[in-house]
Design brief:
Length: 438
């Protein structure tokens, strides 16, 4: 039996403006705008793209020092975001990687105080080339792998009739792999919303079908940035279906509820820390792994989360040693939606959302834009699929040997933090907490 994880997440940043600055045809959704749209899309009726995004498979991205700096910054943002969300309690799950990429695309077109706030919150490099390296990281993971299914897709949707900054469009296309698609938000906001949702559904294999709700796109919308990530992988060491059994899950309030707890034994990277355990479970290919951080007590998760940051995770993971471990892990499924404006304000981003104060002139000078919505949705399912059985027996007479070391037990029958990360570069792709079984 193999154990498989499915994870998808999408981030959307929607920009609004003042409709008095739009060209007449685009502002009123009149025939001129429709005609221009038909002319612009005649050569590419399906995508309506201005310039094709760079294909990371055809043009592989080689990991660089600048990319490592960008990835480390994204990890710092990940834990700052998680601490704010964890304070809300309950189950939480997101892709900080996806949200970071979408906001970094925004930063490419930001200037002045708006850019300064984004750099501080996202831990972005101070120079333009360093910022572009954030896009290189996104394209690196978009190339995927033969041992697992990982897809990253970015796109820009811009109002037809506005003069978009060519450098902004080129950087997002060439470095972030985000093709520019013209849209007519002014004339058909809900139709464009459906187009965006359809593209997101395709990128996430149908797992997130209606990310952008009705009303989020209006006639004043001017630009929408999207980033989607999909991951599907199998454990390197398998779990047997017959070993899964209902076991009590201990909540923080002392109550219990039965959950399907999977079980296996094997050699894995493990750390017995101060008041917690860490376990790293690699996926096939060993490029990516799930790291589970389990507090010693059912009520200990908030204290563990308060200590957790990018530096400590790297330190704890490096200290983990391969040991014989008995693994107990629940089968679970989470779906979480985040309206990120309040969270980002809590992290120090304010000017970006204030009409008249937001400086996004690096995107267009035709109209003063501000961010009207930052939407994020993520889905994770950890379950069993397929069948595999094997058995072996051997009787060998050897000289007596020292008794084997005692097996470590890792029993995730209480609230825990989990994340999916790149083993070599440390990039955190998904991050969540499982505190309340369904």
């Amino acid at each position: 039996m193999w154990f498989r994880a499915r994870l998808v997440a999408v981030a959307v940043v929607a920009f609004a403006g003042c409709d008095s600055h739009l060209p007449d045809g685009a502002r009123h959704g009149g025939n001129a705008s429709r005609a221009e749209q038909r002319t612009a899309t005649a050569a590419d009726p399906d995508m309506r793209s201005i310039g094709a995004a760079v294909d990371p498979v055809a043009v592989p991205v080689v990991w660089s020092e600048r990319m490592q700096v960008a990835a480390d910054g994204a990890n710092r943002f990940a834990f700052a975001l998680h601490r704010l969300r964890a304070a809300e309690g309950g189950n939480r799950f997101c892709s900080p990687f996806s949200l970071h990429a979408a906001l970094a695309m925004t930063a490419v077109g930001a200037r002045g105080e708006t850019l300064d706030e984004l750099r501080a919150t996202l831990h972005l490099p101070d120079d333009a080339e360093g910022l572009a390296a954030v896009g290189d990281v996104a394209r690196f993971y978009a190339a995927g792998s033969q041992s697992y299914d990982l897809a990253v897709a970015s796109a820009l949707w811009g109002q037809s009739g506005l003069a978009w900054n060519g450098t902004f469009v080129a950087v997002l296309r060439d470095r972030f792999g985000a093709g520019f698609r013209t849209a007519d938000f002014a004339a058909d906001p809900d139709g464009e919303r459906e187009r965006i949702n359809a593209a997101v559904a395709t990128a996430t294999r149908g797992r997130i079908a209606t990310l952008v709700p009705r009303g989020a796109i209006t006639p004043l919308s001017r630009l929408c940035l999207t980033n989607a990530i999909f991951f599907k992988g199998s454990w390197r060491t398998t779990f047997a279906e017959e070993a899964t059994s209902p076991q009590p899950f201990r909540r923080a309030d002392g109550s219990t509820t039965p959950v399907p707890l999977m079980h296996r034994t094997g050699t894995e990277a493990h750390l017995a820390g101060d008041g917690f355990q860490l376990l790293a479970l690699p996926y096939v290919g060993a490029d990516l792994e799930m790291v589970v951080l389990l507090p010693a007590s059912a009520e200990g998760l908030p204290a563990l989360e308060a200590r957790l940051d990018a530096g400590r995770l790297a330190e704890w993971r490096a200290a983990a040693e391969e040991v014989d471990v008995s693994v107990w892990l629940p089968r679970f499924r989470l779906q979480d939606r985040l309206d990120a404006l309040a969270t980002l304000r809590g992290l120090g981003v304010t000017a970006l959302f204030v009409p008249g104060s937001a400086d996004l002139t690096g995107m267009t000078e035709s109209e003063r834009l501000a961010v009207g919505a930052v939407l994020h949705e993520a889905f994770v399912e950890v379950n069993e699929e397929g069948t595999e059985a094997a058995a072996a027996t051997a009787v060998i007479a050897n000289a007596p040997s020292p008794p084997p070391p005692r097996r470590v037990e890792f029993r995730a029958d209480r609230p825990f933090v989990f994340l999916i990360r790149d083993v070599r570069h440390g990039t955190i792709l998904f991050l969540g907490r499982h505190a309340e079984p369904d």
